[in-house]
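Late entry, written up from scratch paper. The run itself happened at the end of the previous shift, but nothing got recorded in the book at the time, so transcribing now.
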Amino acid sequence: MIKMIAIDLDGTLLNSNKEISVRNKEALKKAKAAGVKIVICTGRPLTAIEKYLEELNLLDEGDYSITFNGGLVQKTNSGEIIEKALMPLEDVHDLHQLAVDLNVPLDVLSDGLVRQLPTSEEYFSLYGELNNLLTFKSFELSQLKKEHIFNKAVIAIDADYLDEQITKIPAGFYERFEIIKTRNNLLEFMPKGITKAYGISLLGKDLGITQEEMMTIGDEENDLPMIQYAAYGVAMANAVPMVKEAAAIITDDNDHDGVAKAIEKFVLEPLGGGN
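Output as recorded:
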């Protein structure tokens, strides 16, 4: 029996217009009413998903979200952090130098604040276009302090140029960080071992829910660990090939209620509440 559903946002729960369909909302509403934990699992901070949580009625006591690709597990009604994994200042310094060497922009996220660091005079960050609900401020590297919170670092730039520069990242960085493309024009750096699977494993442990009782739904490279982790790993029809190959289930795409169709078949029908 599925007791937790962890769902990615972009390309999964959200359609191409960044909206949640009526059918997806209804399926999630029925699953929650049946006692299933509905957990948004995203690379975004909590402040950038609050409107979706409100739309889905996921702001009650006992509702949780996993943010920063597994870096934080939070109560949605208060923002209280249940589990966390942060990036030390030394890592930010090293990523800053990497960005300078690659001639790419670098943004460092500190909860809802995005610290934009001067690393390239030719290329500017696209992250504000991708996440316009966040607060963006320019910082010099010398202004960053050990006591600041650093959740992750991102490079947001033209997809073709990004792909060229990715090939130049030294192997040592892959040994120290989780380096994942979450969109074709967005590369993210997380502390090593911090993935969406890590986040849902911690929340599952806190709630007494096992891998066998979890469904995860996603489409992108950063969803791969949680797709592999859960017994019911679901890939969207629009998912990248590696996610489809790893999934136990493939559902319809994000513009045709893929999330709802998976939940109706594997969660609601066994409970006697499917369409």
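The radius of gyration is 18 Å.
(Scratch paper discarded after transcription.)
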